[in-house]
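[09:14] KT: can someone run the structure on this one? pasting the chain below
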Amino acid sequence: MPQSKFESSYLKVERAEEIIDEIISLLSSSPPFLYVLETDLGSFQRATLAKKNGNALAKLVVRCGELFHNLRSAIDQAYYEMVSPVTPEGKEKSIQFPFSKDEVALDKTIKSRQAENAGPAFVAAIKQLKPYSSTGGNMFLTLLHEVNVTDKHKFPAPAGNFSRIDSATIQEQVLDFPGGITNGGAGMCAKDVVWRSQLFNTKDIGEQVPPFMNLYHKVLDLPVEVWFYLASPSYSGEIVSTMRELVSETKKALIAMDV
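[09:31] RB: done, structure tokens below
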């Protein structure tokens, strides 16, 4: 971590980086989304489908929420540290990092959040960060703000991205797979492709699915990624790369405010 007056903020960023490592480990050891081959020995029906690991997803959501909260808090604490000593008495409650909808509104927000008290260099640094959600704004700083404001108690759940799964990749592991998936098409817990076949080895059908005696699931080694899909702001992206970008932009914001 770089040296700065913002010790508490940098500790929060450090914790966020630790959370990313935890998430990477969790995704590897207990993936929240799987793609499986289902075999019914009674009817000889086979199917491919997406499957959710609810416990793993819940753990992932908790860690994601903690990371977003830590990074937003890091920015707000650094901002408060710069602005509060020069803010008139009674105005302290309005001190908060100035996010806005667009560049035009940013000047008003900067003023209402008391940034001008810290001097023109500080105001210029805030403007350079472009903390607004419209075109040209800083998407990742906006994500930190919008996700925390939208719902402080329920973090938007990440989802599985099955777009890299197609017939050819499945057929490499399931020789009797008839095809039918092109560039994804997996529906969570819905069967994507269903066929009947006896051209398989019963020793290679995976584990029994209780309480069904004839039903088996085998997890396929396929590229299921975990993504964020957010409506406000409109954003989609792979979870780990998104979080690394969030950390990077938070560090930039802390460095910029250290004037």
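[09:33] KT: thanks! The two ends are 17 Å apart (CA to CA).
[09:34] RB: yep, looked fine to me
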